[in-house]
Amino acid sequence: MSGRLFKYTAGYSIFIVMHLQKIFDECGLAVRQYDRVRGGDINEAFCLHTSDGNFFLKLNDGALYPRMFEREAEGLDALRNNSILKVPQVIQYGGAAHYQYLLLEWLDKERPVANTWEQFGTELALLHKKEQPFSDGKPITILAGCRN
User: Fold this and answer.
1) Number of folded domains that form the chain
2) Backbone angles phi, psi at 113, to 5 degrees
3) 3: which strand partners?
4) Measuring CA to CA, which residue among 99, 110, 118, 109 is closest to residue 23?
5) How far apart are CA 4 and CA 34, in angstroms?
């Protein structure tokens, strides 16, 4: 499902479209087109197409999941800084009305090579051997992106 800004698109409530535009403006993005990304249960997710490239936007109800994306951003930053796994760059997180959002670098799918899972397992094992970083004096569970 795809949408162009300022045009109602079947499948998107006008309420979400209005808030998407507020988020685009807050993030300084000139979005030409956005496409819904499927796969999650509690978030709306979109691929944003801009003249600066593509971005991944996650959106949910901030009252139901307070600080979720702040914690996810911490977890992603910890992963990126403590492993050799490919982890998307956090661009920005924040809120618009009762929604909260997380804007990430878009990662294109890559074709797996013969040892993809073996390499992933090795990198994951190395990550688990590292001492965990701390935030506000409390340990971060790196893989989940949330506090222990």
Assistant:
1) 1
2) -100, 175
3) 34
4) 99
5) 7
Per the structure block, which two tokens stand in for 104?
Answer: 């990430």
The C-alpha torsion from 135 through 140 and 143 to 133, rounded to 10°, is 60
Q: Which domain holds residue 116?
A: 2-147
Question: What CATH number is given to the structural domain containing 110?
Answer: 3.30.200.20
Per residue in 35-67, pLDDT tens? 989 888 889 899 999 999 999 999 998 999 999
Q: Is the pTM of this model over 0.85?
A: no
Distances (CA, A) of 8 to 11, 48, 65, 68: 9, 17, 27, 29
Cα dist from 3 to 42, 65, 126, whole Å: 21, 26, 42
Task: Measure the CA angle with vertex 58, ends 44 and 145; round to 5°.
Answer: 120
Cβ-in-10-Å burial (0-12, 13-18, 19+) of 119 comes to middle
